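User: Show me sequence and structure for the first protein, then do the same for the second.

Assistant: Starting with the first protein.
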Amino acid sequence: MQVNKAFTNYYGYSEQEIIGKNPKILNSGELGKYYYDKMWKTILDPRIGYWRDEITNRKKDGHFCNVILTIYTVFDEKGKPRYFNASYVDSTKCKQAEQKLKESIEGLQKTFEQSEFYKDIFAHDINNILNNIKFSSELLKTYQNNSGKQEKMKEMIAIIQEAVNRGMKLVSNVQKLSKLNTNKFNLERVEVCKLLNESIKLIRGRYSTRKININIDVSSKNIFVRANELLLDVFDNLLDNAIKYNDTPTVEILIKLLNEHKEGINYIRITFINNGIGVLDVQKQQIFQRGHKNCKTGKGMGIGLSLVKKVVEQYKGQIWVEDKVKGDYSKGSSFILLIPESN
């Protein structure tokens, strides 16, 4: 056996130690007689004379190494083997390169999917917002010289302001969704009731003209979960939907907090029970998907609930929706969160 410098550097043998030796010196013992019989039969066959496979060899220091072995047989004019040309490639480096390539492809695919997601959001929602502003602005022009249309003008201004607020919230949500796709998502100990009360205060100010009753059913105010500041957005979204998709004169929302042990993990179960329009069975999973539209109202809640689902999953939690009255979706909904407790 003759070798080059790359061989001696890799396997740890000097040229003097290896020249003239049988290749069995590299045998790790992991491959049996059947394997080598098949290999020799193949490389000794003049019709083939070639072998390539990943094997485990042993270096001089005893360490195993995974290599891709390629053997070419050089035959004489009578079809007898003159010598064998064997080359080894460290398959660990190959696998690392393959893994990096795979990660790059997955990263590009993820970036593409994210860009498509954001494009879908802006293409539809921003278009609706701009149309609302355009329509209201045109009406304002027709009303501005008519003193009897002051109330209508106020109404149009309110619509424009609401559209601007929706646009700002949309941008904020997209930024938060983008943040969820990075590694900068830190969790901390968060007091649930404190955030709930803050969210309720914000929602009451947003819907000051609606009659809203919101109650919290909790045995202890000292309840903590593993979350972060985005939990406020989760609460805000669920409360906002409970009011937005509600045709009753008085909006009723009950928030129940309970401890729950599931699959060896302690959770806080937070249930938002409302008397809104409800969610059809066929929509109960779809509403958490991006771009979903509520069929009854035509209003979009997809981006909000897709954000909620992404956040909750980052908390290692779960979210789903049930009928307030089992079997009758029209009586309202119960949105249920399970978030790991922070002791």
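Switching to the second protein now.
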Amino acid sequence: MRTLLPVALFLSFQAFGQTTPATPPLQAATPTAQLAQAEDAMKHGRNQDAVPILEALSQSTPLPKGVFHDLGLAYYRTGKLAEAQKAFSRAVQNDPSDEESVQMMGLTLFRMGQPANAIPYLEKVRQWTPNSEADANYVLGLCYMNSQRYDDARRAFAAQYGVAPDSGAAYLLTGNMLINANLPELAAAQAQKALVATPNLPMAHFLLGEVALFKSDIDGATKEFEAERALNPGYAPVYDRLGDTYAHVGKYQEAQEALMKAISLDTSRTGPFILMGKVLLRRNDPQSALLYLRHAEKMDPGNFITHTLIGQALRASGQEAEAKQEFDTAAKIHAAGELKLQPSP
């Protein structure tokens, strides 16, 4: 039985040109020797060189054992997914117990946008190896999500992270996966179930607050972030979210206090510094705003929002020429970003 290779390694392969020297032309060699030559090329990253050797061997009689398995891997690693699918299908047909080919068939179908078709193959691998690697469970969970089998997805993610499938942690993990997939309503439902299972579970209220903020429900977001703060007072992002929601309703003193706590806990993120600058501008304190905004600028000079706010603070301080320079810089950064988003001709 072959040892299953890491899923993440295979998911990361993309087609690219080969720069290593080509494998010498085939000599009159036995199929076994040719297969060994192809496998050596693949071992050293020369997958393009292995493909013609394996293609020729796949037409030979008798068929060398494992040739379609190797051909599928070579195709997969060079980004030829349709060809990889056909090769792995033949490999599984020839040897239904070839666990790696079964797994790779599932991964190939997933990458081809066929998650429902990938599920039976990935489930079979899980049956063979119940304690399979974490990223295999992750891909299976994504396939379940894409097929709207959310309970099955939760069980897969629970297996990935080593938590009980019906625990609050499992529901919260699934909620986070759903929010990453831009499914906020479903994510909120999972977070609510997480709190039913574990009422004081950290991060569940934070997720609910994020969903409420996404829906522009400022009151609902504030309520959830305040609940998270009570459970998780050392989590810096909850304070800058509170600073944001307080500022939205004009509670600038509360916003400033919350943002100061966020900055005290974590000075590595620009967000709280930028928000503090905005709040201080609203409080008619441009000089103090500049201190925070200049710090944010040093951390990330390419943020056009920061330069816009610096311009506003400079203008409010009577420094019109310097303000114009900042507005011009902000416009250039923004225009450059818009240009990058345009599709190539």
